[in-house]
Amino acid sequence: MLVQFGKAAEDLAQWVNTTGKAIGRGHIAKIVDSPAVKNSGGLIALTALLLNNWNASNYLGQAGV
């Protein structure tokens, strides 16, 4: 779904992978200081974007799209 957004989507996918690993190891700085967070306007803005994307995906799935 994010492929159409190019480099920004690749950065976001990398951030998701890095975040999962950092959470597992307790490395908060790797999450907060990552380029994906900084380039998206901060952790709150990125979280809102991800939640909105997840919510839209759920609605589309329920609608059978």
Explain the overall architecture:
This protein is mostly helical. It has one domain. Helix content is 77%, strand content 0%. It is elongated, with a radius of gyration of 13 Å. The relative contact order is 0.11. The mean pLDDT is 76.
Assembly context of the chains: single chain
Number of domains: 1
Outline type: elongated
Q: Beta fraction of the residues?
A: under 5%
Gyration radius, in Å: 13 Å
Query: Could you report the average pLDDT, rounded to the nearest whole number?
Result: 76
Helical percent range? over 70%
Short description:
With 65 residues, this protein is an all-alpha fold. It has one domain (3-63). It has four helices and no strands.
Distinctive features:
single chain, 65 residues, mainly alpha
Give the SSE map.
Layout: H1 7-25, H2 28-32, H3 35-39, H4 43-63
